[in-house]
Design goal:
Strand 3, helix 15 and strand 4 form a beta-alpha-beta unit. A five-stranded parallel sheet has the order 2-3-4-1-5. Strands 6-7 form a two-stranded parallel ribbon. By secondary structure, the protein is mainly alpha-helical. Helix 4 packs antiparallel against helix 5. It is built from 22 helices and seven strands. The radius of gyration is 24 Å and the shape is globular.
Length: 505
């Protein structure tokens, strides 16, 4: 019988304990809000998708199970999520000095999704906050930690998933490293300590504390950056905007060299558009462009959002903003969904504190610091208009459009190329029908490339289920997606737009 999830079990018992807990707990703030639970849902969905891909990889499953002491010739092999939960628990343990109600809830949420497929109701945020603060929750969570920690076969293997992926040079290793680090940052904010064994050593170096801070690849040049920019699918308007900005900055340099006066050119930029359209990728390229043109000294990118800038008490928020800015000096601070800074969910002034602190630091370091704020078009316009300081500093807007069906197919084919897959003509036609349907139903929240990534991983799973039954599995079979591997367009539409539980009209 399937185990009941920790959160759902405690939600039932919580009803009978509610009065006692209300008397026991006197919160002046909530440890997490509805937006935070929505972020947990997105992150855990991504982790589940990675686990599905890994579970279809027989070599990976054999290798990782060999690291566990239970491994015997005829024993039942554990799945990727079993090992991943153990890894997350061990990573969590290294941060116990920073443990809070939010961190405990985060671990429980990841466990419930990965192990039980249970998503806590984000609309019950007040109940969940009180639940996470209860002694019963702590007791049950401790049992989960004890029961789901896998002891390694040898002492040097404290973690399982990422070391195995790295040993195999698996194409999921960087994504898994990023997701594991994101789990810790969600749970512990800037206090998170990330074990070096949970990172991937790349040619691009990283600063401690944020996996999204990166220096330049070796031998990087402006020409290489521009080639990367123009290799991105679509984004014609953005590419034109970047090209025109480069022209302006180049002429500014030449005027300065000739002793001529220049107008002040702001590097601060607003990225407008739906998710999955390449805003973060372009921000990384833009930071390198600024460096190559001599307008920034370092050119690194530091990525954050509301949770990374706003704390639970007045006064702490300024400290968090200062930390983010200090990591970004000489480079770019990228604030995703920046409009959330001024969404006053708890009736406090922490968002205003974050904005005012950021504006002051932008002024103090205007010679060697750039900020890129990003998010949906209308909320971002409201955000910029909410403060005169924002209006005066952000007057450059890049517009990111939804990808067309043809571009979505191009993105899918790029995933295939990167992972050694090919498409039959029938499979390509079915994908084309799928993207036509999704594009016709899109709304502002349509995930674009993220949707394509999820569909690609679903196809990998379908292909594995199909070919595992074959007597002879050669390289061509392993590399080929057939029509059978592509989900039905209507099924994909239902999953993307969350209609799978609604009756047909």
């Amino acid at each position: 019988m399937k185990k009941r999830s920790l959160i759902s079990l405690l939600e039932d018992s919580f009803l009978s304990m509610k009065d006692a807990i209300d008397a026991e707990i006197n919160h002046t703030y909530m440890a997490f809000d509805t937006a935070y639970i929505a972020r947990l849902k997105n992150e855990t969905l991504s982790m589940r998708a990675i686990c599905e891909v890994l579970n279809a990889d027989a070599v990976f499953i054999q290798k990782i199970n060999a690291l566990a002491p239970h491994a015997q010739p005829n024993s039942l092999l554990l799945k990727a999520e079993h090992f991943l939960i153990s890894d997350l628990i061990n990573a969590y343990r290294t941060n116990l000095e920073a443990e809070t109600e939010r961190s405990r809830f985060t671990l429980a949420y990841f466990y419930d999704v990965l192990r039980n497929g249970h998503f806590a109701d984000e609309n019950a945020v007040q109940t969940l906050n009180k639940l996470a603060a209860s002694e019963a929750f702590r007791t049950h969570l401790q049992k989960i930690i004890t029961d789901n920690t896998i002891a390694p076969a040898t002492a040097e293997h404290a973690y399982f998933v990422l070391p195995t992926l790295s040993q195999m040079k698996h194409n999921k290793r960087q994504e898994m490293a990023d997701k594991t680090t994101q789990f810790l940052q969600l749970a512990f904010n800037d206090r998170a300590k990330v074990d070096s064994r949970l990172t991937v050593q790349n040619p691009v170096a990283s600063k401690a504390g944020n996996s999204n801070i990166s220096n330049f690849p070796e031998g990087d040049t402006l020409q290489k950056v521009l080639e990367e920019l123009h290799a991105l699918v679509g984004l014609d308007a953005v590419k034109k905007d970047v090209s025109e900005l480069i022209n302006l900055l180049e002429i500014q340099k030449k005027r300065t060299a000739e002793g001529l006066k220049n107008i002040e050119v702001t590097l601060h930029t607003v990225f407008l558009g739906p998710p999955g359209t390449g805003k973060t990728s372009v921000a990384r390229l833009l930071s390198r462009i600024y460096k190559h043109l001599g307008f920034l000294s370092q050119g690194q990118l530091y990525e954050t959002d509301r949770e990374g800038l706003i704390a639970g008490y007045v006064g702490q928020t300024a400290t968090k903003v200062d930390q983010a800015v200090n990591q970004s000096l000489g480079g770019v601070l990228f604030v995703d969904e920046a409009y959330a800074l001024t969404q006053n969910a708890f009736g406090n002034d922490y968002g205003a504190e974050a904005v005012n602190t950021l504006l002051k630091r932008m002024e103090d370091h205007r010679e060697d610091f750039a900020v890129v704020v990003a998010g949906y078009t209308e909320p971002m316009h409201l955000f910029i208009d909410s403060n005169p300081g924002l209006r005066s500093r952000f007057n450059r807007f890049f517009h990111f459009d939804h990808f067309t069906p043809q571009q979505l197919l191009q993105i899918f084919e790029s995933f295939c190329k990167d992972s050694d897959f090919t498409l039959t003509d029938d499979a390509r036609e079915k994908l084309s029908d799928t993207f036509d349907l999704l594009y016709s139903k899109k709304d502002e929240g349509f995930g674009n490339a993220r949707v394509v990534r999820n569909l690609f991983e679903k196809c990998v799973q379908h292909q594995a289920n199909r070919i595992i039954k074959l007597k002879k599995i050669g390289p061509k079979v392993l590399r080929t997606f057939t029509e059978e591997d592509i989900p039905e367009p209507k099924q994909t539409e239902q999953q993307v737009f969350m209609k799978n539980n609604q009756p047909e009209s």
